[in-house]
Amino acid sequence: MGWLDANLLTMLNGLALAALLFLIAVGLSLVFGTMDVLNLAHGVVSLTGAYIGVALLDPATGTIGFIVAMLAAAAIGLVLGAVLAAVTSGVSDHLRQALLTLGIAMIAGDVLGEVFGSDVRSVPPPAFLGGSVEILGRSYPAYRLAVIVLSLIIGVALFLVLERTKAGALVRATVADRTMVEAIGVRSRLVLGGVFAVGAALATLGGLLAGPVLGAQPGLDNTVLLLALVVVVIGGLGSIRGAVLGAVLVGQVQTLGVSLLPDLASFLLFGAMAVVLLLKPAGLLPARYGTGARA
Amino acid sequence: MPGSFRRHRRHPRHLSVVATVAALALGATACGGSLSDSGSAGGDASGDSGAVKVGLVVPASGVYEPLGVDMTNGFQLYLNQHDNKLGGHEVDLVKADEGETPDTGVPAVQKVISQDKVSAVVGIVNSATALGVKEIVTQNKVPLIVANAGADDLADGSDYIWRSSFTNGSIGESLGKPVADAVKGGTVYVMAADYAAGHEYVAGFKKAFTAAGGKIAGEAYTPFGKTADWQPYLSKVQNSGAKAVYVFYAGAEAVNFVKQYKSFGLAGKLPLYAPGFLTEGGVLKAQGKAAKGVRTSLHYSNLLDTTENKTFVGAYTKAYDAPPTVYAVQAYDAAAVLDKALADADGTSGDAIAKALGGIGEIDSPRGTWKFDADHNPDEPYFLREVKEVDGGLGNVIIGNLE
Amino acid sequence: MTRRTGRLRPAGVLLLVVILAAVPFLLASYPVSLGGRILAFALVVVSTDLLTGVTGMPTLAQVGYFGVGAYSAGLVGIHWTDNLIVQLAVGTLAAGLLALVTGVVAVRTAGIVFLMVTLAIGELIHQVADRLDFLGASNGLVGIPAGTLYPGGEPLILAGYTYWWALLVFLLGLTVAYVVAKSPLGLSMRAVRESPTRLRAVGQSTYVVRLVAFIIAGAIAGAAGTAWTAQTRFVSPGDLAFSVSALALLSVVLGGAGTLWGPAIGAAVVFLTRDWLAANYFTGHADLLLGIVFVLAVFLLPRGIAGYQLSRRSDPPHSGAAA
Amino acid sequence: MNPVTATDPSVPAPAASAPLLLEVEGLTVRYGALTAVDSVGMRLAVGRRHALIGPNGAGKSSLFAALAGAQRTAGGQIVLDGQEITGHDEAQRAKAGLVRTYQHSNLFSGLSVLDNVRVGVERTEGQPLRPWPRRRADRRIVEAAIESIERVGLADRLNAPVSALSHGERRQVEVALVLACHPKVVLFDEPTAGMSAAETHHFAALIESLPDTMAAIIIEHDLDVVFRLAHSISVLAAGKVIASGTPAQVRDDPAVQEAYLGSGRGDEPLFEEVSR
Q: 3-class DSSP state for residue D205?
């Protein structure tokens, strides 16, 4: 068995992890790019999604039930995002944003713990994806393959909206040049606020989809937040393509990396991040900023 | 104080100073100062029939909170069954939050000892916290009944450290021979969370397993609290040709591991052995059917078929609407230990309790009868358990006794 | 907007020191030991502010250097001498040295990227502490003897005495921070915060200023670590976890970035909320209380406790791209 | 078109007695395929003020950034007062005596006027990395800073934070800060942009009053100011120097007229007012 054969499944699995990370992280990145808000409540928003799964799903849930849960998660995410956009709107200093959003995250985390208990809860995948499929002679959970496909669909949709619509153009322009925000009208500001809502919705959706893989429990919000931060910073804040690359990289570091260098497993994630940032401080695929050519 | 606030209104700097001092002052319950140790020795209530203050320090927040809940319930159940008395003394129970790590746990123990002046401390989930407070309890002459933390070196015969739970190594050890017998010359892959306890569980197992002629196929230590995906490791397990797998995981990691063991197709092909925390309490509920067939060793199962246990399970389930866990039993037993010691002790001071602890003999527990060994660890039997369906749910069915 | 850095009135300072020094006479041993831990943490927060508030480099690494100081002091105590002054010197030096080695690369970045690089540094130090056996790995370093002030001296065991040692180290560290802030270097540091490009255009390498500030802050955090060990006589990886780093940074914002004394008060508020208010009255809900404090502070104290607001134009994350 | 190239240094030869302070040859800046500054050369003698004019996008600011070391160059050589500084970074060039101002004033806006200028004085005359105060040395720095501030006429705003100053006052602080850096050559990037007529007049006088031991290059759109201050002028278009010489020579250069017409700004009678 060659190296590739031996590690192919691990790499595939890294992609599944990357798919989840992308869904959760991309909102964090876009919100930073457009609103200039570093939303440290993003992790708890995502955990909320996982708990929505706990509340709505059971092992017998069918396709319809799962879609309903996804819609519910997205809807609740939209609301959470809108609330966060409103609450953070008057706070422009990054450090005070951190104080505010982390404060909110701590309160929300405590509330979630009260509601759902401190025990680790599991989120069952939909019944028809509950089994395993045979890949290279090994069992692989069908659900994880579905997650890859679903994330691809959502990612492509997101990309199309950003590249092909007026609202998307506004978002891209804002990411490229923050100073133009001052010049735009109320409607456009609403569009940007919408980015916050959509970003949060993607996080809750990601949290829900991650439920069957990661479970749901207090404290998971911090883990998810740190991973998402690493993803977007490695990829380049504000950049969708960066979030994709960052997620893939982190996914592989967490799977292929620990498989090849098991002794260094605990150092790999942050070590990799440090190396990337020292070589490319703006991230691997930074959003395109004015290069100064027009200076 | 309001006066000083008003006076300093225009000087925010002074205001802050005053506020800080005021806040510090509020923290004081006694004005004895902190420059002598007269007040810090536990048990200033020394009358024979007076109340006794006991500190219950278990996690009320963080990842170990579920264990803290069970332990509180177990301890409280014993008190309720005994009219809130231990050794004839009315109990004044002081609870403190151990949190997740020593940076919250150590101050919590410090607080119940030096502020609340308890005569004994019960609880402690985290081994690092337990090791961190060893010095404090010894110095203050307040006995600590460890009701969970399993670090091998924790109890060493010191007068003030007693343990009603277990040691990591011996649980691991108890599985060595049975697994060696089961694989009949085949190899076993071992895996654990990469922290002190994980290494101790593996070391104990390996010692007994290799002594029984077993061979290790490979080892992996996964980043503790940071691993969510075991596929890379499970892939190695499958490549190793092992005939069985021994792991140590607890909490959320136990849930994710067992579910992935199943979904990556290892369950049913490679028998999975582990210390019982892998499938204990809420963890088992979250694992669901994925846990079926997992074999574990532990000093308790709520399915243990003895009269004492059935009575205990009945009372516990009635009181808390959930079956008891090993954590509840450990705390329940800690209360029983204190009960016996206080009955024998000359007064309720920490020192008196510590002296009496050495002579309490055997404890009748839901898990069976046990006593402290020379190191003050419990000398107790272990049970081989297997996760099976019981009355529509899942339970750890006892399938054998281990030494 | 006036900078209050280095401008405390002597009378106020004296009053504060006297009150702080009197604490062991007034309070019982638990609140005093809590006070001692607050002082050690407050010094970490002061060092965080030296970077975050004064130099405009928001950092999450200070708790890592604090850990280096704490572990160094513990190792010195176990293997060499129980002399606290030696422990202080070794811990400070070790932390400063590691700050130099890591800072050489870390201070090349700025803004949020710097924040994430320091997060990585803090986490990597945490992981090292968690894995090295001679540091006690995940169980922590135990068996540290009580410290003495001079060879053959009485070991400091009682809370009041270790508190006084912590207070001494705190005042020492705070003084160093103030002196630095008042010095020409302090001016250069504030200039880096306000406009790194401008400082370069003036002919001053911002890299060197950042690096020196980073080393000094690291050393101060190391000193704080030794004061921690002197009291707890136990260090565990949990003491340098991400959650502690985050609290240190948030204490700076809560207290008022750039003022040094404000963040120290912020640290006290955070600790008292968690270890006194939550521990006594809201068991298990420290996060909830802290969260409420933080959110309220953002809206009620827009300039932090010290009443000072960090410049809105604090290092933009993309400051690499000069416009 | 008859562009002046680096091999044909165009600035009128200074009086034989005045030594050269700045010699630039073949300076080139590229952004990908775009050449923003194309092989520009210039010479500047002590006491001279040279103006750079040209339409927007001509590459003036890129040229400045390249001179100051804030922009990577694709080629060329810069010699300051006989010292080759091509390989120096921004800070080293400023240290060597090549100091710039910014198009949008770039100051330490949270610091007081005094502290802003102190930063410069500390670098040239003090010890900017000394981590402890020293009473006498620090007072000397403060006095030097105050002197520099008085020179630009802001003595009454010493302790005001720069963020509270008017636009014109900030420009004055910039000059004070630049002077504190002991420059040999100062690069002024649109110094009077956004100023009122009175402020502009005042500011031009300030530049005129600079010591004649230094030289200056000025990017400026206000041609009144240009013709008032400059001893010589270069016209930049599409990254190239298309004309260079005394104000009179430049005004009459047909290539200049063409470039301005061709640049789409022909409707602006650029030279009308000055040639009246």
A: helix
